């Protein structure tokens, strides 16, 4: 009987290569995970050859360029005032890498115009980033809407402990946010 060690070795290397590949995937590029989008009302429609459209194209290439001054948040304006100006920003989750953020924003800026083909107002959310553009300046103002609720459908195993940790975390978070805020 011949011991099939060749077979075992090759199977082992397949496993190794596969796990290295998975590892490199998880480090290199977590693909952008689309969640939701909202287009403005049908009263905010632009025509294909409007100034707004060309400003929007500039804005999106500006937001998705890989040398924005800030890496995880950036706001930009193209055009000067109404009716043609376009305002936009992206925000990435604080724990994503600069590369993952950039990939997400590139994807978002392409997807958003396919999903909201002629709207002057659009929002798109991903697991890693969000992007919003508008024909009005919305920078530095608190916005409570639109909003989207999403549920994590996984169960908590230790519910009491979870509630405790959640409460402590949110309290600490609120305190820190307040300490850094302009309302102090
Ligand atoms: C907006 O316009 C689109 C395309 O014409 C249409 O499918 C959609 O129903 C409209 N939405 C509303 C709320 O009127
Ligand atoms: C945005 O576009 C809508 C629809 O064309 C218009 O009614 C509104 O006045 C515009 N807002 C600004 C700030 O220009
Ligand atoms: C494009 O612009 C031209 C002139 O600026 C105008 O005559 C034409 O109607 C526009 N076309 C569309 C589809 O808006
Ligand atoms: C983005 O816009 C700013 C301000 O208009 C400009 O200085 C910059 O060159 C633009 N960047 C890109 C990549 O379009
Ligand atoms: C970004 O937003 C700030 C307000 O939060 C504003 O002062 C600034 O002009 C904006 N930058 C651009 C390029 O629009
Ligand atoms: C955005 O990313 C998704 C998932 O990786 C992909 O399926 C989609 O084709 C991308 N969209 C564009 C416009 O590249
Ligand atoms: C979560 O727990 C509930 C109640 O114990 C159960 O009915 C449900 O199937 C569980 N869901 C998942 C995703 O495990």
UniProtKB/TrEMBL annotation:
Gene3D superfamilies: Gnk2 domain, C-X8-C-X2-C motif
InterPro entries: GNK2, GNK2_sf
Region forming the signal peptide: 1-29
Keyword tags: Repeat, Signal
Chain ranges of the Gnk2-homologous domain: 34-138
Classification via Pfam families: Stress-antifung (PF01657)
Record protein name field: Gnk2-homologous domain-containing protein
Annotated organism of origin: Ilex paraguariensis (yerba mate)
């Amino acid at each position: 009987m011949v011991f099939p060690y060749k077979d075992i070795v090759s199977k082992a290397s397949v496993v190794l290569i596969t796990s290295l590949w998975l590892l490199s995937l998880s480090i290199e590029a977590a693909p952008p995970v689309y969640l939701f989008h909202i287009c403005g009302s049908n009263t905010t429609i632009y025509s294909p050859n409007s100034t707004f459209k060309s400003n929007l194209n500039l804005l999106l290439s500006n937001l998705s360029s890989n040398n924005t001054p800030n890496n995880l948040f950036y706001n930009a304006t193209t055009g000067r005032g109404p009716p043609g100006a376009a305002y936009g920003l992206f925000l990435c989750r604080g724990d994503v890498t600069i590369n993952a953020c950039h990939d997400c924003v590139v994807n978002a800026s392409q997807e958003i115009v396919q999903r909201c083909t002629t709207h002057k107002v659009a929002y798109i959310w991903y697991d890693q980033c969000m992007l919003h553009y508008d024909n009005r300046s919305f920078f530095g103002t608190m916005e409570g809407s639109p909003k989207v609720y999403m549920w994590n459908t996984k169960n908590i195993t230790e519910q009491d402990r979870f509630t405790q940790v959640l409460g402590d975390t949110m309290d600490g978070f609120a305190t820190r946010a307040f300490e850094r805020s302009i309302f102090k």
